[in-house]
Amino acid sequence: MCGRLNLSSDPADLADELRLDVVSYDFTPRYNVPPGADVPIVVERLNEAGELTRRLETAHWGLVPSWAKDPKIGFKAFNARSETVLEKPMFRQAIRRRRAALPIPGYYEWEVTEDGKQPWMMSAAGQGPLFMAGVFEFWKQPDEQWLVSTSILTMASAGHLREVHDRMPVFLSREHIDEWTDPALATAEVPQLLSATLDQVDPASVTKHRVGRAVGNVRNDSPQLAEPVA
């Protein structure tokens, strides 16, 4: 499960590395981001000239499928289980046609202990953010504007991350981002892509440390939330 994010660094700083053609994500540092908030996604879409462009966009965290009657459905869909994402009506169109990479500096997870829930901060073991595999959708709002929304794929935890929680995001290596976001991939090849994506996940690329319990309150939002505690 992934239910709280740290968005403390600007993903636009990766414009050259990610070969971004368009940056439309409006960065504000946030340290305790819950579902329902705006998050950055890297996607590949056609521009008005019909050219494929790589874009850093803003998306609502909690997928709202095109057939939804009410956008509140997204509050139940901020994560998508990789085991069922190909079959679930909520996600099956998005996984086949609209895949995204989310550049996330870190996320929080809670370990159940005898003394209550202990929060942990997970971040990249190397430089830069974590990249999480996601899906995205478009939903036409009553004012005719389009709402872009996203979900983060999850899988069974592995390695040292299993010590904290039994689920973790599906992490993308930088080399795998191109394959995951490719919109030209044939629908029949998506199951194979998903399987290959799960196989390349390396939990050793993620580091973790305990943080204070103040992060449990979404009203708290400061850099101190991510600082390690004993």
Automatic annotation (TrEMBL):
Asked if the keyword Lipid metabolism belongs to this entry, the reply reads no
Enzyme class, first EC level, given as a word: hydrolase
**EC id:** 3.4.-.-
Q: Name one Pfam family in it.
A: SRAP
According to the lineage, what is the superkingdom? Bacteria
Q: Which organism encodes this protein?
A: Brevibacterium metallidurans
For this UniProt record, give its keywords in alphabetical order, as a comma-separated list: Covalent protein-DNA linkage, DNA damage, DNA-binding, Hydrolase, Lyase, Protease
SUPFAM superfamilies given for it?
BB1717-like (SSF143081)
Q: Indicate what this protein is called per its UniProt record.
A: Abasic site processing protein
Of which family is this protein a member?
Answer: Belongs to the SOS response-associated peptidase family.
